[in-house]
Amino acid sequence: MQIPGLPELVLEAISAAQRAVAPGASVAVVGGAVRDLLLHRVHNDPWRGIPDLDLVVEGSGAALVEQLEQELAARGYPNAITSRRVHGAYGTVEVELELERDLGLLLDVATARSETYPVPAENPQVRFGALAEDLARRDFTINAMALVLAAPDAGSQALLDPHGGQQDLQQRLLRLLHRQSLRDDPTRLLRGARYAARLGFELAPESQALATSTLAAWPWPWRLGDPPEQAPPALGTRLRMELALLLEREPWPQALAALQSWGALVLLDPQLQADCSWLLRLRWAQQIGRAHV
Question: Which partner for 165 in 86, 128, 145, 149 could form a disulfide, CB atoms 3.0-4.6 Å apart?
Fold first, then answer.
């Protein structure tokens, strides 16, 4: 299966690097790139517009990147890795590759891990583990699939779909993976609204019920109106990041409308959640603006 944005030479180098540093362990493309591949879309970085692939490694992500650099050099590209950022606590290395001019690629290479959230909306506690555990920690079933990269002489890659992501893709549904998903990280609803606006998906009924019950209980120790500096990451930093992506890179009126239909605009502004006419006023403003052009 050809992965858009992943040159065959890089695929061969990744497979060779993994065989060198962790023989028999898996390395896989995961998340949005697999989802978009099955939807016949190219998965690009939303800010820079170049291919952006998430790799999960059973073993050390940092060790794989070091070996990958050697493998690319052996194939005639000694300076292919132009930048890297290491996030040691999460076993992740962000790498930018440039094989030729105007042929760039972003790789987010992560050590397979599981996560637990002792305090809702705080940063998780991480334990490195297996690929299956890494898929189980994700947001929606459509993002919990993996394309395991086989060696070039071992045939095609294997698609892993332990949570029914392909079926939900066919039904155009956003289904949360577990009952604690939104308690752990409420920004998953903003991510879901981005997918709903971009792809035309809907929240699965049981996930809608989970969103309703979680928001009503408000299990987080911080509320709107409390000192901003005390906000946990999922209601502060990560929420701002997701909102910026939603407003700047997605059809934001549709995304906000999806959030309102799910009762989730309360994460941003309870008054906006209660306002049933903002979308109509926006359309009037757009019509008035076109009339004066």
Answer: 145
**C-alpha–C-alpha distance, residues 164 and 140, integer Å:** 10
pLDDT of 291 > 60? The answer is no
State how beta strands 103-111 and 158-160 pair. Answer: unpaired
pTM for this structure?
Answer: 0.89
Tell me the longest C-alpha to C-alpha distance in the chain: 66
DSSP per residue, the chain: ---TT--HHHHHHHHHHHHHHSTT--EEEETHHHHHHHTT---B-TTT-SBEEEEEESS-HHHHHHHHHHHHHHTT-TT-EEEEEEEGGGTEEEEEEEEETTEEEEEEEEE-EEEE-SSTTSPPEEEE--HHHHHHTSSBGGG--EEE---TTS-SPEEE-TT-HHHHHHHTEE-BSSTTHHHH-THHHHHHHHHHHHH--EE-HHHHHHHHHHHHH--SS--BTB-GGG--GGGTHHHHHHHHHHHHHS-HHHHHHHHHHTTGGGGT-HHHHH-SSHHHHHHHHHHHHHHT-
Distance CA 103, CA 99 (A): 6
pLDDT tens column, 87-129: 877 889 999 998 876 667 889 999 999 999 999 999 999 999 9
Residue 20 CB burial class (10 angstroms; 0-12, 13-18, ≥19): middle
Instruction: Summarize pLDDT for 12-29 with one digit per residue, the tens.
Output: 999 999 999 988 888 999
Measure the CA angle with vertex 125, ends 121 and 126; round to 5°: 130
Cβ burial, residue 126 (10 Å; 0-12/13-18/19+)? middle
Instruction: Give the C-alpha separation, 83 to 94, whole Å.
Output: 8
**Model confidence at 46: pLDDT above 90:** no
